[in-house]
Fold this protein.
Amino acid sequence: MLHAPGETTSHPGAGLVGRVRAPGDKSISHRALILGALAHGPTEIEGLLEGEDVRRTAAAMTAFGAGVERLAEGRWRVVGHGGFTEPAEMIDCGNAGTGARLIMGAAAGFDISSSFTGDASLRGRPMGRVLEPLALMGVRWLGREGGRLPLTLHGGKLSAIDYSLPVPSAQVKSAILLAGLNAAGQTRIVEPQPTRDHTERMLRAFGAQVEIEDGADGRVVRLAGGQNLQSARITVAGDPSSAAFPLVAALITPRSEVTLTGVMINPLRAGLIDTLREMGADLTLSNARAAGGERIADITARHSALSGITVPPERAVSMIDEYPILAIAAAFATGPTVMRGIGELRVKESDRIALTAAGLRACGVRAEEEPEGLIVNGVGAGRWITGGARVASGGDHRIAMSFLVLGLAARAPVSVDGTGMIATSFPGFSELMGSLGARLDAR
């Protein structure tokens, strides 16, 4: 099992109250940097998430020849020259799976060799589902079994493909689209089940022509090759995956009312909100508006009596990163919450199904693993979860944050190891939670 440095303990206490801004969305932050580097001229970015994963992508864009400058907190400028040049060093993506897959897709369109690596967790994650369609377009690569990092990729002289996604994956779709920008012909992707559409939206913001239509076989995305991107001004919407932690904390902690401002409400990312509402959560959306091509709103969560439900498996694609924190909400609900169709969680930064189940059991909650599912038997409204455990995070930021949230509403404090990894996606997590009244002690 992998571990990140640091241990944090969360303590039960009074209700959480306050109004805070959601951190910038990680998915959009990666894409803004990459498309800015591919474009001609300066791209101004506001609200960029400055976690370790995104900083790795910023460093990679510098290595590929773009000018990348931090102007102030969350404000960045990327000066692109219309393409990538060959990097002198290996690209280290750290723990950023999204960054690695999207950067490989972008680099594929140029006649250069580039080598990629990452931390121990990322090196263990398969890249084959991205490399397979890129190879069909003409990319050559050499790496470990299953396409695992480190690997070297050589692109250029690509041909467009007609590709049906075998499994729902916005990362695979995005890698193909980025490669398709410099492929001969029209790239056509069929999604039997629609995935998050941030790349399509942002490509349009940078001046690309992207066609999207819903057909009998699913959603079809078309992109003609040979398009030149133009610089843009991008405002990064608040990350719904990060906002989920303080929102669920408010739902399970008595006397709580918390508002997260500027949260993205893209329908393809709103699965957790829909699910929590079905469980009886008191969630209110207000002040809906547009930002950077996305819809955003302020979301208020109040302590709620939750009930267990069966989450539709097809909803997983819109909330795959939120299942660990959903499991925490489910632990406080009345009755079982059944989560299936989530096998992808086995190959994330950790085996999130196994770690979530183990952590819940350590805290006194009955949880049953399935090969591609998890069943959490909630203790019921008004009843305490024992807590008092030391939970192994596996070096996974979302596991760590989820169990720190549980500790805020348990009978006894919960300690989580490897919490240093939280900075990859949510820098300032402890400070934000502390501003709402949470007590988190790090050592």
Observations:
- DSSP finds 13 helices and 28 strands in the chain.
- The mean pLDDT is 95.
- The first strand starts at residue 7 and ends at 11.
